Amino acid sequence: MPYVPRPTTHQPCAHCGQTFESRNLRRKYCSNSCNVLASYDRTGRRGEPRPTKADLESVVKKIMELTTAKAKPSLAEAKLRSQELAKQIGDDLAAAKAERLAEAKIKMKELGKKMKEDDLAAAKGEHLVKAAKRPQKP
């Protein structure tokens, strides 16, 4: 008897639902990965089943709808927003500059007090005592 190949059949995958061609009538899954994932689903060895292709397509469709539904800002709105941001940045820089200036004034006052104390000590001759106490370099 001559060899006669079996006709191919189109059937849906038992796990993902995608149709596939097969000559074996007992085949239930479109690929080995679907077979393994269905096994995980049956035995509960895996947390959540993987999303199917249809699930992923619906998520992509929703994302596309949301991104196209948002109105793009006009040039005037973008320009106004950039001016607001520039003003805010300028205000922040001015505040930081004023803060640094105040800190510098405080340091100058402290330095001035210290210099006055050093001048008074020099007038009394205390600087000579301090210099005499320092060890001389060889």
Radius of gyration: 41 Å
Strand content: 5-15%
Low-confidence regions = none
The SSE order reads EEHHHH
Which outline best applies?
elongated
Helix content: 55-70%
Strand order across the largest sheet: 1-2
Number of strands: 2
- Helical segment count: 4
- Domain count: the total is 2
Query: What class do helices, strands and sheet pairing give?
Result: mainly alpha
Largest sheet: 2 strands, antiparallel
Mean of pLDDT: 80
Measure the end-to-end span.
116 Å
From the structure provided, what is the oligomeric state, counting identical versus distinct chains? single chain
List keywords for this structure.
mainly alpha; single chain; 138 residues; 63% helix; 2 strands; two-stranded antiparallel ribbon; 4 helices
Task: Kindly describe this structure.
It is a single chain. This protein folds into two domains: 9-59, no CATH class; 76-133. The chain has a two-stranded antiparallel ribbon. The termini are far apart. The protein has four helices and two strands, in the order ββαααα. The chain has 138 residues and is mainly alpha-helical. It is elongated. The protein has helices at residues 32-43, 53-69, 75-124, 126-133, and strands spanning 9-12, 19-22. The longest helix is centred in the last third of the chain and has 50 residues, at 75-124.
